[in-house]
Amino acid sequence: MNKTIIEAIKDYAIPLHEPNDFNPLLEEIQEQTYVLLGEASHGTSEFYKIRAELSKKLIVENEFNFLAVEGDWPACEQVNRYIKGYDQTSTNAKDVLHSFNRWPTWMWANEEMIKLIEWLKEYNKNKPQDKMVGFYGIDIYSLWESMDEIIIYLEKTNSPLIKQAKEAFACFEPYHRQSEKYAVSAAFYGEGCHDEVIKLLTDICLTKNTSSSHDERDLSLEVNGLITANAENYYRTMVVNDNESWNIRDRHMVEVIQKIADFYGKGAKGIIWEHNTHVGDARATDMKEEGIVNVGQLLREQYGHDKLFIVGFGTHRGTVIAADEWGVNFERMIVPPAKTGSWEDMMHKAGPDDKLLIFNDENRRCFQHQIGHRAIGVVYHPAHEHFGNYVPSVMSKRYDAFIYLNQTKALHPLKVERVLL
Questions:
Q1: In the chain, which stretches have pLDDT less than 70?
Q2: Are 332 and 57 in contact (CB under 8 A)?
Q3: Which of 25, 103, 325, 408 is found 20 to 30 A from 378 (Cα to Cα)?
Q4: Predicted local confidence at residue 416, as pLDDT
């Protein structure tokens, strides 16, 4: 089987030597509503650079409206305000990226993001508001920051909901912004704040539905309310059911994507940046047997293959930014050569070139066997990766295309003063 896969890669892969070599991929993306761009790690420079260049092309040539990333809404909103000219105080993208001060800071506070953000700001310059491209975070982790943002907005607008919001959030005060402490208390002692935040989210939505306003601040209020409710559910669930907490998180991300698309209106088109484990269809992996869903699967089920294009990324070896345990300082780590018999090993044995493989009716059957596919998280142990970093995958069903980079380098993090949340 391995020899057959290697020969098929040789037959169908497109060598990548210069930017124009990506044109066949861009030509595949025509009428899609969403393009999902993955990554095999959160700490590889080339993944960010290539996704940035592809995103620019999609924005200019295919009129995509927004970029949604695996990041916190409040911090990403600072970027959004900067690129749209709403922020009159920040002078450059580097300063704005210091908003990403919750671990792992390096995911978005890095040198690679600076050029893209400045490009987005220049692209939006002199465009009418409804033609500006937005930048948004779709993750679930910003419980405390989102509550802060809700209070700030309600106070600024003299909203009648301010008293209710403060009373709801007072429920969280005993936990001192410690998510793990809240999770244990809510899961095992029934001392959660579920009813309070659900009632507040309902009232925020009702207020929005009776208003004719089309203000980005209203979108932010609604999403921060959604984060508060879903994050409470996530933390309450994660200590008793890890798989279900994953599902809560990915369903939340899809829900936020839909909120953004609704804001942009009919014909809205989004580019999604997330780890391969989120964008690659879970039904083509062993996640399916464990009852785990992800963003790629949920969007495919909602929009169909014709409106969605998923691109996976991978590497054979190199360096990466990661940490050896949750919450500690990052390190520049060595990524060893891929495990023998893995997808990345096959790509390497088919030739050391970087390459693009587009799955289509002609070749999908050649890549229908389940094979280990490398995934590196923010916590990584290179010496032990053979035991837990390979996801059994049917590659031609998991993705619509795959970008393979033979050797990659670590991301370049910015120095950010980290806060403990």
A1: 1-3, 209-214, 418-421
A2: no
A3: 25
A4: 84
**Residue 189: what are its φ and ψ, rounded to 5°?**
-120, 0
Tokens of 212: 């004719």
In single-letter form, the type of residue at position 309 comes to F
Rounded Cα distance, 141 and 162, in Å: 23
What is the model's pTM? 0.95
